[in-house]
From TrEMBL:
PANTHER family: GLYCOGEN PHOSPHORYLASE, GLYCOGEN PHOSPHORYLASE, LIVER FORM. GO terms for molecular function: glycogen phosphorylase activity; pyridoxal phosphate binding. InterPro entries: Glycg_phsphrylas, Glyco_trans_35, Pyridoxal_P_attach_site. The keyword DNA repair does not apply. The modification N6-(pyridoxal phosphate)lysine is found at residue 654. It is an enzyme of class 2 (transferase). It catalyses: [(1->4)-alpha-D-glucosyl](n) + phosphate = [(1->4)-alpha-D-glucosyl](n-1) + alpha-D-glucose 1-phosphate. Gene3D superfamilies: Glycogen Phosphorylase B (3.40.50.2000). This is Alpha-1,4 glucan phosphorylase. The lineage of its organism: Bacteria, Bacillati, Bacillota, Bacilli, Bacillales. The keyword NADP does not apply.
C-alpha cells in the first residue's frame, strides 16, 4: 500500500484527514504516531490473515511459547524495519516536516517483563517470525507493566506504568475468541459408564479475553501472533441478583477480584513469593492459552493422539508449569482419555526452559493454596507425584533419592520438579548453566532423564539490537561485507578480515563517538549532568541484584576517586561510569546500592578536582527503549556477576554486537564469548565457578580478613559509614557494610575486588591505543552473529520443537 515515498505520503495525509479529521498543520507527534501505526496494521493485515490460513491448510506444526513476561518495548521502528519501509517512511516524514525518531518516542514501552527472561521471549518472537516459523506467544495483557522508576533524593521510587492510557495501536481485541477460566469450587466424583468422572461445582468463572498483537517477521511477510489475555467478569449482574446473590457489593467484589488478575506484572525477579494472586495469574495464562490453542487444533479434525505432531507448548521458566496438569485435565475430563494416554500426549507436547539456579527464585507453591484455588488441578498434581514416585521406588531407587525429586514435599509443590517430570525437553540457557543444572541443582533428574537435558545458549535479535538501534554501524558493516549478514547473521564473521583496516577502524570509532554524543545529550537533558563524549563510557545496565555485583563496580569507582584525590596530577584516561537498574520494590539491600551509586555520583561529579577525570551517572528508569540508546554508545560492557550465578545474560551479547569490549567473569554466556574472542579481545577476571562452588561447599572465605589486609578496601568501606564523604545520614549504608563484613560477602565482592581493579587498569591501558581498541571492537562485532537469536531459534526448532519454516505457496 505504500511501497514508495510518494504513495506513503499520500496515504499518510489521507488517513490523517479521514481518521482524525486533521490537516498536516494541526497534527501532533502523537497523531503522526497513531496514523503510522494504523497504516502498518492495514499494510500487514493480509499477510497476517494469510499466515493464519496457511497454518490451517498446510497443517504445519505450531509452537506456542507460554510466558508470564514479554518485554517487547516499542514496536513502530522495528515493524517498519521488518516490512522494509523504515527508510521510505523516514524520508517521507521528513518531507512532511517530521522526524521519525521523535515520532518513535511517542510510543510507550510495552514493559510486560522484568528483565532478561521477558526480553528473551520478545527476541524469540522476532526470530520465529523472521525465520518463517509458525511460533506464537501466549502471555498476559497486564494493565500496568513493570513500574516506572523515579530517583528522588537518590532513592528509587516506584510509579505505576500506565502504558495503555492512550490506547495501543498494535493490539486487536478478539471478544469472539474469549474462553472461560475457573477457580475455586469442589470436585465431585461419580461413576459413568464404568468410569470415574470428575466434575467441579461451585466454581467462580472468569472470562479470558484475548488481545492479539501481530508479530511481523523481517522480509518475507510472515506474521505470527502474540496473544495477550485480559481477565473480564463472566457473571451477569442481573443473573446474580436473580440467583439470590443479590448484594451489589458482592458483584463489585467479584468484579474487582477478576480485574486484579491481569492488573499488574509482579516486579520481583529476585525471589519467589507465594502470593495467591500470582498463582491465579499463572493458571489464568495456562488455562486460557491451552483452551485457545486446542480450539485451533480441533479445526484440523485430527485425534488428540496427534496433538504432539501438530503442537509444541514451550514454557518459559516454571511460571507456566500449570499447563501440564491443565492439559491432563482437559484430555481426561473433557476428552475422555485414560491417565496413561493423557500423560503420554502431555509429555510429548510440553518442553521447558530453566532460567535460574538461584534457589530463592525456584518456585514452590503451598499445597493448600493450590488445593483450594484449583482443586481438580491439585488432584492431578497429586496423582502425577504418586505415580512418579511410585515408579521410581519400583525401579529400586532409594527413599532418599525419591524424596529429593518428589514434586510434593513438606506441604509444597515444587514447580521445577513438575516441569521436568512433565516435559520432553529441559534446557538451560548457556553451556555453563546447563552443565551446572546437570551436575548440581537438578543432578538427580539428569540421572533419570539424561536424554531430555540439552543446552540452548540464549540469543538476541540483531534486527532490533543492531540494525534498528545502531543504523550507522549497520551501514558500515554492509559497506564492508555486503548486506547478507542481515538475514544470515553468522556472516558478520567476515568483518574480522577488516580488523586492521585503518579506514574501517576510523569510521567505526567515529560512529561510536556519534552515539556517545547522542547519549551525552540525553544525559544532559534528563539529568543535567555533563559528560565528556571522549571519555571511556563504561556501562552496567541490568536489574539490580546482589549476584550481578553493581556493588563491586561502584566500590571500585569510589576507589578510583580516592586515587585521584591522592594523586590529582597523574595523567589518566577520563572515564564515565554509567549505571541503569531497577530494584525489586522490597529488596532493601538492592535499593541502598542504588542510593549509594547516586550519592557517589553526586560527590564525584561535584568535585572539580575529580570530575575532569571521573564521572558517574545513574540513568533513571532503565527500559528497552533506553537500552537502545545506551548500548550503541558503550565502550566497555560490565558483565561481572559471581561465577555460576548468571544463567546466561543477554545484555552481554547486545554490547558485544555494538562493538563494546567486555570486562567480565567466566559466567553464563560470557564463557562462550570468551571462547570466540580469546583473551586479547575481552577483559577477564575473578573467581571461576568451580572455585565459588568450593567456597560454598567447604568454606574457607573470610571477607573480614580481606578488609583488614587490603588498605584500599578498608578505605572504600570506611568512607561509606564513618569517614565520609560517601556517608549518608542515619548510617544508610551500614546495611551494605554488614552484607560484606558481617554476612561474609555472599557474592565474593571483596574477594574479586583486586582482580577486578587490575582488569580495569588493563581496560584503561588498552583504551590509550585507539587503533588496537578499534581492532578488538571489530573482532567483537564480527563474532557476535553467533549470538543472534536466529541461531538460537534454529536450534530450538531442530532439536526441541521439530518444526520447519512454513513456505508460502505463491
Ligand atoms: C523470578 C520470579 C520469582 C517470582 C516472581 C516473578 C519472577 C519473575 C522472574 C524471576 C526470575 C526468572 C529468572 C530469570 O529472569 N532469569 C534470567 O533469564 C535470562 C534469560 O534466559 C538470563 O539471560 C539471565 O541470566 C537470567 O538471570
Amino acid at each position: 500500500m505504500f511501497n514508495n515515498k510518494e504513495l506513503f505520503k499520500a496515504s499518510f495525509q489521507e488517513q490523517l484527514v479521514s481518521r482524525l479529521g486533521k490537516s498536516m498543520e494541526e497534527a501532533t507527534a502523537g497523531d503522526v504516531y497513531k496514523i503510522l501505526g494504523s497504516l502498518i496494521r492495514e499494510n500487514i493485515g493480509r499477510d497476517w490473515a494469510e499466515s493464519n490460513r496457511i497454518a490451517k491448510v498446510q497443517e504445519e506444526k505450531q509452537v506456542y511459547y507460554f510466558s508470564m513476561e514479554f518485554l517487547i518495548g516499542r514496536l513502530l521502528g522495528n515493524n517498519l524495519l521488518n516490512i522494509g519501509m523504515l527508510e521510505t517512511v523516514r524520508d517521507g516524514l521528513k518531507e512532511l516536516g517530521w522526524d521519525l525518531d521523535e515520532i518513535e518516542s511517542q510510543e510507550p514501552d510495552a514493559g510486560l517483563g522484568n528483565g532478561g527472561l521477558g526480553r528473551l521471549a520478545a527476541c524469540f518472537l522476532d526470530s520465529l517470525a523472521s525465520l518463517q516459523y509458525a511460533g506464537h506467544g501466549c502471555g498476559i495483557r497486564y494493565k500496568y507493566g513493570l513500574f516506572e522508576q523515579k530517583i528522588i533524593d537518590g532513592h528509587q521510587v516506584e510509579l505505576p506504568d500506565d502504558w495503555l492510557q492512550r490506547g495501543n495501536v498494535w493490539e486487536e481485541r478478539r471478544p469472539d475468541k474469549k474462553v472461560e477460566v475457573r477457580f475455586w469450587g469442589r470436585v465431585e466424583m461419580s461413576e459413568r459408564d464404568g468410569r470415574t468422572v470428575f466434575e467441579t461445582t461451585g466454581y467462580e468463572k472468569v472470562w479470558a479475553v484475548p488481545y492479539d498483537v501481530p508479530v511481523i517477521g523481517h522480509g518475507e511477510g510472515r506474521v505470527n501472533t502474540l496473544r495477550l489475555w485480559s481477565a473480564e467478569s463472566a457473571v451477569d449482574p442481573i443473573k446474580m441478583a436473580q440467583d439470590g446473590q443479590n448484594s451489589y457489593y458482592s458483584f463489585l467484589n467479584y468484579s474487582r477480584s477478576v480485574q486484579s488478575i491481569s492488573e499488574f506484572l509482579y516486579p520481583d525477579d529476585s525471589g519467589y513469593e507465594g502470593k495467591l494472586l500470582r498463582l491465579k495469574q499463572q493458571y489464568f495464562l495456562c488455562s486460557a492459552g491451552l483452551q485457545s490453542l486446542l480450539r485451533t487444533f480441533e479445526k484440523l479434525k485430527l485425534p488428540y493422539t496427534e496433538l504432539p505432531e501438530k503442537v509444541s507448548v514451550h514454557i518459559n521458566d516454571t511460571h507456566p508449569t500449570l499447563v501440564i496438569p491443565e492439559l491432563m485435565r482437559i484430555l481426561m475430563d473433557e476428552q475422555g482419555f485414560g491417565w496413561d494416554e493423557a500423560w503420554d500426549i502431555t509429555v510429548r507436547t510440553v518442553s521447558y526452559t530453566n532460567h535460574t539456579l538461584l534457589s530463592e527464585a525456584l518456585e514452590k507453591w503451598p499445597e493448600n493454596m493450590i488445593r483450594e484455588l484449583l482443586p481438580r488441578i491439585y488432584m492431578i498434581i497429586e496423582e502425577i507425584n504418586k505415580r512418579f514416585c511410585g515408579q521410581l521406588l519400583e525401579e529400586g531407587r532409594s527413599q532418599e533419592f525419591v524424596s529429593q525429586v518428589a514434586i510434593l514435599e513438606s506441604g509444597q509443590v515444587k514447580m521445577a520438579h513438575l516441569a521436568i517430570a512433565g516435559s520432553n525437553s529441559i534446557n538451560g540457557v548457556a553451556g555453563l548453566h546447563t552443565e551446572l543444572l546437570k551436575t548440581d541443582v537438578m543432578q538427580p533428574f539428569y540421572e533419570l532423564y539424561p536424554d531430555r537435558f540439552n543446552n540452548k545458549t540464549n540469543g538476541i535479535t540483531h534486527r532490533r539490537w543492531l540494525m534498528h538501534a545502531n543504523p550507522k554501524l549497520s551501514s558500515l558493516i554492509s559497506e564492508a561485507i555486503g548486506s547478507g549478514w542481515t538475514t544470515s547473521p553468522l556472516q558478520l564473521k567476515e568483518l574480522a578480515k577488516f580488523k586492521d583496516d585503518r579506514h574501517i577502524q576510523d569510521v567505526l570509532m567515529g560512529i561510536k563517538l556519534d552515539n556517545k554524543r547522542r547519549l551525552a545529550a540525553y544525559i544532559q537533558d534528563k539529568q543535567g549532568v555533563m559528560v565528556d563524549p571522549e571519555s571511556i563510557f563504561d556501562v552496567q545496565v541490568k536489574r539490580l541484584h546482589g549476584y550481578k555485583r553493581q556493588l563491586m563496580n561502584i566500590l571500585h569507582v569510589i576507589h578510583l576517586y580516592h586515587e585521584i584525590k591522592d594523586q590529582p596530577n597523574v595523567e589518566r584516561v577520563p572515564r564515565t561510569f554509567i549505571f541503569g537498574a531497577k530494584a525489586a520494590p522490597g529488596y532493601y539491600l538492592a535499593k541502598s546500592i542504588i542510593k549509594l551509586i547516586n550519592v557517589a555520583a553526586d560527590v564525584i561529579n561535584r568535585d572539580p578536582q575529580v570530575s575532569q577525570q571521573l564521572k558517574v551517572v545513574f540513568l533513571e528508569n532503565y527500559s528497552v527503549s533506553l537500552a537502545e540508546k545506551i548500548i550503541p554508545a558503550a565502550n566497555v560492557s560490565e558483565q561481572i556477576s559471581t561465577a555460576g550465578k548468571e544463567a546466561s545474560g543477554t545484555g552481554n551479547m547486545k554490547f558485544m554486537m555494538n562493538g563494546a569490549l567486555t570486562i567480565g567473569t567466566l559466567d553464563g554466556a560470557n564463557v562462550e564469548m570468551f571462547d570466540l574472542l580469546g583473551e586479547e579481545n575481552m577483559f577477564l577476571f575473578g573467581l571461576r565457578s568451580q572455585e565459588v562452588l568450593n567456597y560454598y561447599r567447604h568454606g574457607g572465605y573470610v571477607a573480614r580478613e580481606l578488609y583488614h589486609q587490603d588498605a584500599r578496601l578498608r578505605r572504600v568501606l570506611d568512607s561509606l559509614v564513618t569517614e565520609g564523604p560517601f556517608c549518608c545520614h542515619e548510617r544508610e549504608f551500614e546495611i551494605i557494610r554488614q552484607a560484606l563484613l558481617d554476612h561474609n560477602d555472599e557474592f565474593f565482592v571483596l574477594r574479586d575486588f583486586d582482580d577486578y581493579a587490575a582488569a580495569q587498569k588493563q581496560v584503561e591501558q588498552a583504551y590509550r591505543d585507539s587503533v588496537s581498541w578499534a581492532s578488538k571492537s571489530i573482532v567483537n562485532i564480527a563474532n557476535s552473529g553467533h549470538f543472534s537469536s536466529d541461531c538460537t531459534i534454529e536450534r530450538y526448532a531442530a532439536d526441541i520443537w521439530d518444526i520447519a519454516p512454513v513456505r508460502r505457496e505463491s
